[in-house]
Design goal:
Structural class: alpha+beta
Bound molecules: adenosine-5'-diphosphate
Number of strands: 13
Distance between the termini: 98 Å
CATH superfamily of the largest domain: Histidine kinase-like ATPase, C-terminal domain
Largest sheet: 5 strands, antiparallel
CATH class of the largest domain: Alpha Beta
Shape: elongated
Strand content: 15-25%
């Protein structure tokens, strides 16, 4: 600090000395003023350098300055660096925050006071069909054209969420987006979106399921209560009584089968998949299942079906015996129930060569039109409703088979042609299979 007045004094003294050397008082005074002026110009030049540096966009070219201006420059430099670091920290935190919002399963859109998009994450872009970069600054109502949305924004009551059709929504393939506006800051709005298609689908399936079960149970119950009423009100002889009791027992059995299938399904859905600790010999699975189906055929078909076992390589499957047995018997019971009496049924297992094993049941029944095949394993989906009912079907058999296959890492394969018969297979993955020699 002391350098500054010293250099000024030096300038004044040098000017004065020059005047004194020239031998006149006015020149001495003039020289001192001139010295001060020179010092002032020199000082202004240094200040100008500092100002130029402050104004420059790249603050890296630091001018060499000493004294007060150098000190000022050094302090400014430190202050700038601290501010820069602070800004970098804030920027990093902002980026972290935006990345977290990007990762959110919910869509987030920020709107300004005029409902123009300020920012949106990728999820919201997918939900609303907007572009997170291109559509910044666009009026959101110009992009989301669902009438509910416009009315919602105009209404100003955001206490409830609303539902709109998502991009690509079609009646056959619905896509539903739930959306709620949360006002914040100075007339700004935060829009949160959620894809509720799956929830709605699950809801619809649950409603259908309850309606189906109620319907399936109501029918035999109505018949049963009709018989009870008849027996209570009419004087019946023994033969008639026996006839009615037989019909009643049939209806009770139908309900029992339905409840048993429902319980089986709920057990399959609610329990962990079978581990690989139990090994079931495929031979011991198919043989008794085929015997059981021969019994069923003898009970309902005249002449009986020709049912044969097609033995594959001797092997074991890792899984749950009773589940696999119930899946195979379901396929065999379908073959017997839908194939006309005297028809041929072949059941067995084979290795298609890709490491998997197919447990298959093949029949010469009526076959199934291709449009039904994708829906066949849905609960209560039936092609031939009356044949299913007549033969005690619940509409749940193939749903059970599909669940068992999936719990064993496999899948159900259906090949069928109208008038030629059907082949149903449970395809089990290599991880669940062992050739007998490896187990022994
Ligand atoms: P169900 O108890 O009605 O037999 P499933 O789920 O086992 O129910 O089968 C669903 C539908 O698939 C049946 O109603 C029937 O229309 C059809 N189906 C199943 N297996 C056969 C088959 N082997 N041949 C012809 N149609 C079949």
């Amino acid at each position: 600090m002391i350098a500054r007045p010293l250099t000024l004094l030096l300038g004044v003294a040098a000017g004065g000395a020059w005047g004194w050397w020239r031998g006149s008082l006015p020149l001495t005074l003039g020289g001192a003023v001139l010295g001060a002026l020179c010092w002032f110009l020199w000082d202004m030049a240094r200040a100008a350098r500092l100002l130029r540096w402050l104004a420059a966009s790249d603050g890296d070219r630091v001018p060499r300055l000493s004294g007060l201006w150098g000190e000022l420059m050094e302090r400014s430099r430190k202050r700038f660096r601290a501010l820069e670091q602070k800004a970098q920290g804030s920027e990093a935190r902002l980026q972290d925050f935006l990345s977290a919002v990007q990762a959110s399963p919910n869509g987030v859109v920020l709107l300004d006071a005029q409902s123009r998009i300020e920012w949106s994450n990728q999820t919201a872009a997918q939900h609303l069909g907007i572009d997170p970069q291109r559509d910044i600054g666009q009026y959101v109502r110009n992009l989301v054209r669902h009438p509910n949305f416009g009315a919602y924004l105009d209404g100003g009551n955001f206490s409830q969420e609303i539902e709109i059709d998502g991009p690509g929504h079609r009646p056959t393939q619905p896509r539903k987006i739930s959306l709620q506006v949360h006002p914040y800051g100075e007339q700004r709005q935060l829009v949160l979106t959620r894809d509720v298609t799956a929830v709605q689908l699950a809801d619809a399936m649950r409603r259908d399921f309850v309606a189906n079960v109620s319907h399936e149970i109501r029918t035999p119950l109505t018949v049963l209560s009709g018989f009870v009423e008849t027996m209570q009100s009419l004087p019946l002889d023994e033969a008639e009584r026996q006839h009615f009791l037989g019909l009643m027992s049939q209806q009770a059995l139908r309900m029992l089968t339905l409840v048993n299938d429902l319980l089986t399904l709920s057990r399959l859905e609610g329990s962990p998949a079978p581990g690989a600790s139990e090994w079931v010999a495929v031979q011991d699975l198919m043989q008794p299942a085929v015997q059981e189906s021969q019994g069923l055929s003898a009970a309902i078909a005249h002449p009986v079906h020709q049912i044969e076992v097609v033995t594959g390589p001797s092997m074991h499957v890792a899984g749950n015996r009773s589940e696999l047995f119930s899946a195979v018997t379901n396929l065999l019971s379908n073959a017997v129930r839908y194939t006309p009496p005297g028809g041929r049924i072949r059941a067995g297992w084979r290795l298609p060569g890709d490491g998997s094993c197919e447990l298959f049941v093949e029949d010469t029944g009526p076959g199934i039109a291709s449009e039904h095949l994708p829906r066949l394993t849905e609960r209560f989906y039936r092609v031939d409703r009356s044949r299913s009912r007549e033969t005690g079907g619940t509409g749940l058999g193939l749903a059970i088979v599909k669940h068992v296959a999936q719990r064993h890492g496999g899948q159900v394969k259906i090949a069928s042609e109208l008038g030629k018969g059907s082949t149903f297979s449970i395809v089990l993955p290599p991880a669940r299979l062992r050739k007998d020699s490896a187990v022994a």
